[in-house]
Structure formats: C-alpha cells, structure tokens
C-alpha cells in the first residue's frame, strides 16, 4: 500500500505518490512502505518550504518541539497509532490512524503555534495499513533535537544542517521503528538513520 500526503494546504487537493526504487526512497528520507515489497516516495506541498528564521527551530529547540508535540497530540484519542511523524524547522506533520474509522489515516500539521487538521490521507496499493502503524509512545520523541545535532556532526559536512527528521517503520527491511535525518550542505547530503531511542546506526550518502 502506498500513501500520499493530504496536506495540499495551499492548493486544496490531495498530493500524488510515485513508486520508486529502494535508493530513491532512501534519498527522500521517508521512503516508507506499506507491505514489504514496494518502497514509495511520499510527496507533499510541504516539502522544501523554507523555515522562517523568526521562530525557534523545532529541530533544535527542545522546549519549542515539546510544546508543538503537546498541542498536536494531547487532543487525540489514546493510544495514538501513527503512520509517520515528520519534524521540520518550522512545522510538525503527524499522520495517525482514525480510531473511529480504522481503515483511514488523518494528518495534523503544527505550524505558527497552531494545529491544523485533520485532513484525510489518500491510501492505495498493495499491503496492509496495520503493518505500517506503530504506537507513537514507543518512540522517544524527546531525543529529536539531540538527534538532529548528532546527525549534523556524524554527517561531517561543512555547513551541514538537518533539514528534517522522519519517524516510521523501517519497511521493507524490518518492522523496527526508526528515525531518518536528512542533513544537507552546499557540498552534498547525508541520510542518518537511528533507532527509536535516538541511537545512530548508519550514515548514507545521498545523491
């Protein structure tokens, strides 16, 4: 099963997804898969939008991120079964199972101090949604700012900065819940992979 971002916040429509090979899925940092056979690229109008420098970076400011996550998750029914969590310097995107309609996924977006959503996420393709969901509480979200900083160091790129952190199951390789951090610089990019507790396990070169 592949899925699309539903946050066409300015365009008013659903995004489109394309199946890619494993390396391309890794290159976009959140190459999550429904089932264990078909990696997908998940595209969103949110991707690539520059963060405002007037606000604290959610990737590096622990208190700002904690507040953003509280505002996003506190109103949701528990336990939260997530499809993915993505943190950018200026926004948080959380996709979760709708507990009233378990076959559907909703996306919530935190930005500029407020939460928008839910917006329905389009799901399609082979595989089972249940295999891709994970209890959000299983991951240590407090490690994200520290992980972003450590990823920048491990990437060893001059002027390298983390552009976003993604949390999802490591399909199709395993059912593990893992972080992926993309670090970008004028001279190149790296993908830093870490366990759900923030322990870094791999650094890969991105094209």
What order do the helices and strands come in, and which of them pair?
Elements: E1 2-3, E2 18-19, H1 22-27, E3 40-41, H2 62-73, E4 81-87, E5 91-98, E6 101-111, E7 114-121, E8 123-124, H3 129-132, E9 134-135, H4 144-155, E10 161-169, E11 177-185, E12 188-195, E13 200-206
Antiparallel strand pairs: 1-8, 2-3, 4-5, 4-9, 4-10, 5-6, 6-7, 10-11, 11-12, 12-13
Overview of the molecule:
Helices cover 16% and strands 37% of the residues. The protein is of the alpha+beta class. The chain has one domain (2-206). The strands form 3 sheets. Strands 4, 5, 6, 7, 9, 10, 11, 12 and 13 form a 9-stranded antiparallel β-sheet that branches. A two-stranded antiparallel sheet has the order 1-8. The chain is globular, with a radius of gyration of 16 Å. The two termini are 26 Å apart. Residues 1-53 have low confidence and may be disordered.
């Amino acid at each position: 099963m592949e899925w699309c971002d539903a946050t066409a916040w300015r365009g008013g429509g659903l995004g489109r997804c394309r199946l890619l090979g494993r390396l391309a899925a890794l290159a976009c940092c959140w190459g999550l898969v429904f089932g264990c056979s078909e990696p997908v690229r998940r595209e969103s109008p949110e991707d690539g939008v520059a963060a405002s420098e007037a606000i604290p970076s959610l990737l590096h400011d622990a208190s700002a991120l904690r507040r953003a996550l509280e505002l996003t998750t506190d109103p949701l029914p528990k336990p939260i079964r997530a499809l993915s969590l993505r943190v950018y310097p200026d926004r948080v995107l959380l996709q979760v199972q709708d507990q009233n309609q378990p076959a559907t996924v909703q996306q919530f977006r935190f930005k500029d101090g407020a939460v928008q959503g839910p917006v329905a996420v389009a799901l399609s393709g082979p595989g089972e949604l249940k295999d891709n969901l994970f209890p959000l509480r299983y991951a240590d979200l407090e490690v994200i700012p520290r992980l972003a900083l450590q990823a920048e160091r491990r990437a060893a790129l001059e002027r390298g900065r983390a552009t976003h952190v993604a949390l999802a199951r490591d399909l199709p390789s395993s059912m593990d819940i893992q972080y992926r951090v993309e670090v970008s610089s004028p001279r190149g990019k790296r993908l830093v992979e870490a366990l759900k507790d923030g322990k870094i396990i791999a650094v890969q070169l991105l094209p």
